[in-house]
Amino acid sequence: MSPQEKASREGIMEAARRVFIEYGYDGARMQEIADEAGVNKALIHYYFRSKEELFQEVFLEAFIKVVPSIMVILNSDEPLFKKIELFVSKYLDTLSENPMIPGFILHELAHGRQHIDALIRGTGLNPQFFINQIYREIDAGKIKNCDPTQLIVNILSLCIFPFVAQPILQGVFFRNREEDYKRFMVERKMDVVRFIIASIRKQQEEG
């Protein structure tokens, strides 16, 4: 691929990213992406056979960029509670910068496309070190007995839901005031951390 073709392809992907963020997968149209990129639709199909293929490329590019930093946190020697704080902060920042990620995953699962599992595993994301650390903390009596998988799913769910339900939350709780919603999401970082830690912290026996 020539430098000009590479630049053209990257321009299309950046335009697609903006359109997917604004309209989601189902609402985005290839013509809108072409208009945003300043190219004709035929050129998009030259690089990408379908909207789905383009969406996968945009998703993987965004996901691959953040996986290394997430893995650094999960594989670090930080204490468990500090690691949870760092992970939640990084994950919420990632979703804020790439809000198409939850929508893409839900869209693929809703259509029975199980290859999403292979796509994510292909990025190198592996929580096993983190899972082992949770087991060690349980064995040492530092946290309550819990299923590490359930704990991780709880963390992910608490982070993801506000992005999936953003239109509802903004309308019901913030009367569509975007600044208020952004402030809520900033505060949510510590709220999620406090909630998760409180759920697993082992209380000292009185007396």
Keywords:
globular; 77% helix; Tetracycline Repressor, domain 2; mainly alpha; single chain
The chain-level structural class is mainly alpha
Low-confidence stretches: none
CATH superfamily of the largest domain: Tetracycline Repressor, domain 2
Query: Looking at CATH, which topology of the largest domain would you report?
Result: Tetracycline Repressor, domain 2
What characterizes the major β-sheet?
Answer: none
Question: Beta-strand percentage?
Answer: under 5%
Coarse morphology: globular
Question: How confident overall, as mean pLDDT?
Answer: 87
Order of helices and strands: HHHHHHHHHHH
User: Which CATH C-level class of the largest domain is it?
Assistant: Mainly Alpha
Number of strands: 0
The N- to C-terminal Cα distance equals: 72 Å
Number of domains: 2
- Computed CA radius of gyration, to the nearest angstrom: 20 Å
Total helical segments: 11
CATH architecture of the largest domain: Orthogonal Bundle
Helix content: over 70%
Fold topology:
Blueprint lengths: L2 H25 L2 H8 L3 H7 L3 H24 L5 H18 L2 H11 L4 H7 L6 H12 L8 H17 L1 H8 L4 H23 L7
Helix pairs in contact: 1-2, 1-4, 1-6, 4-5, 5-9, 5-11, 9-11
